[in-house]
Structure formats: C-alpha cells, structure tokens
Amino acid sequence: HRRYFVLRAGSHTGPSRLEWYKNEQKFTAAKKSGGKAACLAPVLLGVSRISSARRGHTVALYAKDQTVVLVAEEQWGQEEWYLAVKKLIEEERKDDECGEGFSEEDDGYCTLPAAPLFREVWPVTVKARGLGCSKSLTGESRLCLTASSLILVRVGVSSDLPSVTMPLLSVRRFGHLEGSFYLELGRSAPSGAGEVWMEAQDQAAAQNIHEAVREAVRSMRLL
C-alpha cells in the first residue's frame, strides 16, 4: 500500500520516530503527530538499502524483533531516506558511542555496541551446517557489520540467547551462492574454526552482504 512517510527527530513532542499517513493531505491536516509511528533510537539496530528487480529500491529499518521496509520510487529517493535515517540514529547515539574489539579471553559473546557502529544490518537465517550446528547458531538472526567484526544478533525464538562476534581478521574466506552468504572462520575466531552458512532474503541481499563484507575486510587489511 502507498503511504506518506515522515521522519521526525526527537523533540518535546516525543522520541525520534518514523510516521506514516494515508497520503500527504492527511499529514498536512494533522496539527500534531497523528499518524502511525515506529520509534527509532534507541531500539533500532540499523538501516540498510538494497535494490533489485523483484523488490525495487528498498530501505529497511531493523530493530531486534521488528522490521519496517520502505520502497522508494527512484534510487535517489532510496539514498535520501537511507542517509537521513542513518544520520538521525548516529546523532542521537553519539553520546553512547563505545570502543569495540576483542581479547584473547573473549568467548565471542558480547554486549551489543551502540547502533552507529553497525555499518549495515541484514536479516538472515543461520543454517544447520558447520558452526551453525555445532555451536547452536541456527535460526533467525540479524547479521550486523561493524568496522572490525560481524555480529549475529539472535531474534525470534532465540532472542534470549547472547549475540555472537566474528572478527573480520579471523575470516579466511567468504562468498555467496544463490540466496545464501557463507564465511569460513579460522582458529583465531572466538567460536573456533569452521563455516557459517546464512540464508538471506534473496540473491540480491546475499550479494549485498558479500560486497559489504569484502569492502570491510579490504579496509581492515589496509590498516
């Protein structure tokens, strides 16, 4: 259904939020916030954008157990929405930024970093093969990319389980096959050596994960 969306920063009228109205006229007629709304910070993990022939130009906002997907008519509109939401999250979380990293004693289970540290977020389903099976990682997750690691945030029936950190420097190889993204971790990974296979939303999403991780790994190795 077509809707008219409004992105509001936090103010005396309420927290930062995404509102939607039936049309622009309904928004104009509302003196105050009168549309349906989804709160952003601090519950939002991140925002991502993917373009495909099947889904169009989408912008997805990910909370731990909720997703809001916008479909823009043009790619420039998709880019504007993506940058606006990302900027709003970062501005509201800038006081909560924290360092990241891991030590030799890190068992791979972490406290989630502040949302601005997540460069990208994707919904995935970890398959029952490799480390997914041996380390009980199977099921729905949010795959979150930071400057130095991938983090699996468990959702759905596994939402009470701790998140799992996979440092990029421990990744031996990675790629995508049809609608799946996979990576092989070395012995230095907190979870140990092995493969993790994840089913993405579709082939375009799997390719998007592959390209983003490749760029992040390349940047890490240049340091």
What is the secondary structure topology, with strand pairs?
Elements: E1 4-8, E2 17-21, H1 24-29, E3 36-39, E4 44-52, E5 56-63, E6 67-72, H2 75-93, E7 109-110, E8 120-126, H3 131-134, E9 139-145, E10 149-154, E11 163-167, E12 171-177, E13 180-185, E14 194-199, H4 203-222
Antiparallel strand pairs: 1-2, 2-3, 4-5, 5-6, 7-11, 8-9, 8-14, 9-10, 10-11, 12-13, 13-14
Topology as a string of helices (H) and strands (E):
EEHEEEEHEEHEEEEEEH
Residue share in β-strands: 35-45%
Percent in helix: 10-25%
Strand order of the largest sheet: 7-11-10-9-8-14-13-12
Pick out the low-confidence regions: 98-111
Secondary-structure arrangement, i.e. CATH architecture of the largest domain = Roll
Q: CATH superfamily of the largest domain, called what?
A: Pleckstrin-homology domain (PH domain)/Phosphotyrosine-binding domain (PTB)
Question: On the 0-100 scale, what is the average pLDDT?
Answer: 80
State the secondary-structure class.
alpha+beta
Cα distance spanning the termini? 46 Å
Quickly count the domains: 2
Number of helices: 4
- The biggest beta sheet, please? 8 strands, antiparallel
